[in-house]
Amino acid sequence: MPPKKQKTGDSNPSKSTMEFTLCYIKPDITSQEEREKIMDDIQKSGFTILYSVPFHFTKENAEDFYREHKGKGFFENLVQFTASNECLVLILAKENAIQEFRKLIGPTNPIKAKEEAPETLRAKYGTEGPRNAVHGSDSQESYQREVELFDIWIPFKDQRTPFGLSLENFMCAENLHFSFCEV
User: Is residue 155 left, alpha or beta, with left meaning phi > 0 and alpha meaning psi from -120 to 50?
Assistant: First the structure.
C-alpha cells in the first residue's frame, strides 16, 4: 500500500508543480522481490505509485517506443531486449515528477551510474547497456506519448486525474491506488 498522502498546504492547483511521470521496470528485473525493492526505493524518494500494470512489449511496440533511436547502432539490440520479457509499468506522482524521477534513476549507462551516482536506481539495479533496470519519461511530451503507447487509462494522459479532482486534491485522497496486478 502506498504511503499516506499529505496535503501540501496550497490548494490552488494552478500554483502546484505536482505532476505524473511514467516508469517501466525493464525486462531484466524478473523477480518480484527485486521489483518490490525498486518500488520501495521509488516511494521512499517521495513518489506515490498511482498505477501499476504488467506489460509485454512486442517487437513493434518496442520499435515504436524507442523510435527516436532508430538507425543508431544499439537500436536492434535495445528492441530485442525490450521485447524479451514482461516489464512493469508504473504511473508516479510527485512535485516536478519528471525531473525528480530522472535524478532518481541516474545516468543511462549503469556502469557510469555506479561511478557517478551510486545511490540511483540504475546504479543499484542495472547491469550493462540497455539492462539499466528502469525507464523514466524525459519530458512532458515523452510522458504523453508513452502513456498513449502503453494504452494507459486516458485520464493520466494529460495530467488530469480520475474523478474530476485537481491533481493536488487527488494526491491527498486516502488509500487511492490503481493496480491491475499484485505487486
Answer: alpha
